TrEMBL record:
Annotated Gfo/Idh/MocA-like oxidoreductase N-terminal domain residues: 3-117
Protein name: Gfo/Idh/MocA family oxidoreductase
Species per Swiss-Prot/TrEMBL record: Streptococcus panodentis
InterPro entries recorded: Gfo/Idh/MocA-like_OxRdtase_N, GFO_IDH_MocA-like_dom, NAD(P)-bd_dom_sf
Coiled coil regions, renumbered to chain: none
GFO/IDH/MocA-like oxidoreductase domain boundaries: 160-245
PANTHER family linked: PTHR43054, SCYLLO-INOSITOL 2-DEHYDROGENASE (NADP(+)) IOLU
Amino acid sequence: MLKLGIIGTGAISHEFIKAAQLSGGYQLAAVYSRTLTAAERFVKAYEKVALYTDMVEFLSADLDVAYIASPNSLHFSHAKVAILARKHVIVEKPAVSLPAEWAELVKLAAEHQVYVFEAARNYHEEAFATIREFLRDKTVWGASFTYAKYSSKMQALLEGQEPNVFSAKFSGGALMDLGVYTLYAAIGLFGRPEKALYTAQQLPNTVDLNGAGSLIYPDFQVRIQAGKNLNSQLPAEIYTDQGTLTLDGIEFISSAIFQRLDGQEEVLPIEQAAHPMLEESQAFAGVLENGEDRTYADWQQATAAVHDCLFAMRREAGIRFEVDDD
Ligand SMILES: NC(=O)c1ccc[n+]([C@@H]2O[C@H](COP(=O)([O-])OP(=O)(O)OC[C@H]3O[C@@H](n4cnc5c(N)ncnc54)[C@H](OP(=O)(O)O)[C@@H]3O)[C@@H](O)[C@H]2O)c1
């Protein structure tokens, strides 16, 4: 059993704990929060969990792995101190604000003999392995991936507040929050693109409310859409020389249907997991327990490619974060 520590007491941390417990591989051991009140409120649902408001003390606790779900721009410093304390790290997406931060975390993790993972939950879905296998004898001619969901923080934004997810200080916006899933889908299926483009509808602080872009591969292009001020029901499509594969989305996929050029349909054997974060928690536990270094190296490269794309796309759209000025 991996002893799990939590940084950040938002709703997603409860979800990760649920998935981690479902996997049977983790035991919740400690929670860090900036305030005791938030920590106490958070652990009401659990038993025998140590609470900390001091990061150094939290990282000195008997923990194997720290799950980090703080606002985006704090991931890097939180992951860094955890690695320096020789804890494995699972850091929520987007793991970092800048590609150089990811490179530093990977280097530090290797030096301190721990693993660092980005919690890119769709990348670890078994559905993508099934789809990759299905595409093996086909020539890909393009794809279209969308993830757009009206944010629960839109009301606050419209009332003049600046929620973390829309702030330049915390590296927010549609591309970082939801576009990252479309990039993981593309890079997981097709590898690193040659070029990444993006234009967006932006707030005065330059952070994007929604946007569209392209990932350019040598022989095809992937259209990307992300949004936080709108809902999209668009399915995902992958176009091939033999027909079109339609997915019900690019995360927590439950259906994949291939329509051949002659109209015949084939349903792929996709089985949705019991929880959207279950497969990633199982995957991380697998590497932590078995040290599958080749798998880990592939993940590191995928994460590096995703963050190179995010950075290039932000630059193209003119999305600037506070961390860019440092
Ligand atoms: N994988 C998924 O499906 C999924 C879903 C949602 C979110 N996420 C990711 O999870 C992360 C957290 O998202 P969220 O919406 O929960 O963020 P959030 O509400 O802005 O912050 C999460 C937690 O971080 C701490 N925090 C907030 N503001 C802080 C500040 N100024 N300084 C230091 N700590 C602060 C708070 O915990 P304390 O008060 O206890 O310190 C808070 O509960 C993001 O990276 C997001 O992308 C992932």
